[in-house]
Specification:
alpha/beta; Dihydrodipicolinate Reductase, domain 2
Length: about 350
């Protein structure tokens, strides 16, 4: 016996990826509903070998459905998630709306699967920010061994993190660079993204950090350990898919780079590609379509007593969003609902 599953936002980048991953991982689905806004009503989407027509999210009755994967942004989630949860359907939400709610678990299954037991307070589970998700998968096994004191991370985040509009803008501006008659001014991003990097993701806060940077701090503390100090600089780069991060970690105890490499090789969800030769590391282009979080450039930081540096790359539409949501659904099914 399988589950009745809803994917809300099925026509977007993340929603389509959720459908792909549900099929790829053979999630036990008895029935699947693909929901979209009225402007996308009737749009066809693929679920494995099946083609589905989207239904109207606004009028959909969640009664009798088991799990709903939401990829509709905070405003849509605010309107529809409580309705679904009240109807007895467990919501796994990809927006930021519930991530910081103390009554809603924020889950990365490789890191804190046990926290899923808290879902019953609101019948909602939050999916973390894409840049946080891949980083904490790498941090957790190292933290278990040597206790992390402080993390300094610089991110290099792809255009797809801003949705289809971000990818389209990068594509259009790149083409325009070679056509002097074309001009594509920024609309999704604050400045031109083609052949450029933009040190701002989301809005600025009073202390000078951006909300994306604040998310990484708050979410790492909630998922891994509130005692970890985190400082982040988040940058948008002209890459279509795949987020990269340069992570500096300071530990309470000494951790040798070779031991760290061995720990990460054994950790769930991680693939270590770390050869000290030209090209002996993974780039965002190479990680697209893969489930793993790739770790490279593991090395001692000699400027602090117990420090390591590493390079972390992942497909943000997968581990940073759709894959993590489906993995949460798998844990929910195995530990709580137990129907599949």
């Amino acid at each position: 016996m399988g589950y009745r599953v809803v994917v809300a936002g099925a026509t977007g980048n993340v929603g389509r990826e959720m459908l792909n991953i549900l099929a790829e991982r053979q999630f036990p689905v008895d029935e699947l509903a693909a929901l979209a806004s009225r402007k996308s009503l009737g749009t066809e989407v693929s679920f494995g070998e099946t083609t589905l027509k989207t239904k109207d999210l606004d009028t959909f009755d969640f009664e009798g459905w088991d799990i709903a994967l939401f990829a509709i942004g905070s405003e849509g989630t605010k309107a529809y998630a409580p309705r679904a949860a009240k109807a007895g359907c467990v919501v796994i939400d990809n927006s930021s709306l519930y991530r910081y709610d103390p009554e809603v678990p924020l889950i990365v299954p490789e890191v804190n699967a046990d926290a899923i037991e808290g879902y019953a307070k609101k019948n909602i589970i939050a999916n973390p920010n894409c840049s946080t998700a891949q980083m904490v998968v790498a941090l957790k096994p190292l933290h278990d061994r040597a206790r992390i004191k402080r993390v300094v991370v610089s991110t290099y985040q792809s255009a797809s993190g801003a949705g289809k509009g971000g990818m389209d803008e990068l594509w259009d501006q790149t083409k325009a660079e070679y056509n002097p008659t074309e001009d594509v001014p920024p609309s999704t991003f604050q400045k031109e993204i083609a052949f450029n990097v933009i040190p701002q993701i989301d809005v600025f806060m009073e202390d000078g950090s951006t909300r994306e940077e604040w998310k990484m701090v708050a979410e790492t503390k909630k998922i891994v350990d509130p005692a970890i100090k985190v400082t982040a600089t988040c940058v948008r780069v002209p890459v279509f898919v795949g987020h990269s991060e340069a992570v500096n970690i300071e530990f309470e105890e000494f951790l040798d780079e070779d031991e760290a490499r061995d720990i990460l090789r054994e950790a769930p969800g991680i693939m270590v590609i770390d050869k000290r030769e030209p090209g002996g590391y993974v780039t965002p282009r190479e990680c697209v379509g893969d489930y793993a979080t790739f770790i490279s450039r593991i090395r001692q930081d000699s400027t602090v007593e117990n420090g390591l540096n590493l390079w972390c790359v992942s497909d943000n539409l997968r581990k940073g969003a759709a894959l993590n949501a489906v993995q949460i659904a798998e844990v929910l099914g195995q530990r709580v609902l137990k129907k599949g």
